[in-house]
Amino acid sequence: MNTGSPAPDFTLFDTDGNEQTLSAHRGSPIVLAFFPAAFTGVCETEVCAFRDAMATFNDVGATVWGIAVDSRFTLAAFAQKNDLNFPLLSDYKRSATDAYGIRFEGLAGMDGYDVANRSVFVIDAQGNLSWQWIAESLGDEPPYDEVKAAVAALTSNT
C-alpha cells in the first residue's frame, strides 16, 4: 500500500463483542497496531509500550487499536492482564490482516497457524494511509517514536 492511498476498510469485533468499522471512525487519526499473538513476549512489550504512550495519542485526538488474530475472549484476558487503555480487535478471520497484506504463515513452525505480521499503520482523518511500518522479523518492535511523530505530524497540519 502506498502512502496517501485509502486505507482498507474492515469490521472486527472488540473484546466486548461490539463491531468496530474503520471507516466509521473517520475524523481523527487512527493507529492500527497489528501484533502476532496475545500472551507472547514481544507482543506484550508492544501493547504495554502503546499503553504507556496513550497520553501522547489522546493529546492529539488519535485512536489506537491493537489487532491480532486471537479470539476476542483471548484478547480480553490479554488486555486485562496488561491493564490496557485502548481497544483490542479480533481479526480471527484474518480479513484485515489480508487486506493490509501482512499475513505471516506458520507461526512458530505450526503449519496453518497464520497470524498478522507485526506492523503499524497510521490512518489520517480522511481515511488515507499516512504512515506504515512492517516488521522484517516478528521479534522486531515498532519504532514507537516514529509512530508518535507520524500522528503528531497529522494533527499539526490541521
Give the overall form: globular
Helix content: 25-40%
Strand content is 15-25%
Return the structural class.
Answer: alpha+beta
Please compute the radius of gyration using only Cα atoms.
14 Å
| Strand line-up in the sheet with most strands | 2-1-5-4-3-8-9
What is the top-level CATH class? Alpha Beta
Number of helices: 5
Largest sheet geometry: 7 strands, mixed
Number of strands: 9
| CATH topology annotation | Glutaredoxin
Order of helices and strands: EEEHHEHEHEEEEH
Task: Give structural notes.
By secondary structure, this protein is an alpha+beta fold. The chain has a single domain, classed as Glutaredoxin. The chain has five helices and nine strands, in the order βββααβαβαββββα. The strands form two sheets. Strands 2-1-5-4-3-8-9 form a seven-stranded mixed beta sheet. Strand 8 and strand 9 form a beta hairpin. The protein is globular, with a radius of gyration of 14 Å.
Structural features:
9 strands, single chain, two-stranded antiparallel sheet, Glutaredoxin, 7-stranded mixed β-sheet, alpha+beta, 23% strand, 158 residues
List the helices and strands and how they pair.
Blueprint: E1 11-14, E2 19-21, E3 30-34, H1 41-52, H2 54-59, E4 63-68, H3 72-81, E5 88-90, H4 95-99, E6 103-104, E7 115-116, E8 119-123, E9 129-134, H5 144-156
Parallel strand pairs: 3-4, 4-5
Antiparallel strand pairs: 1-2, 1-5, 3-8, 6-7, 8-9
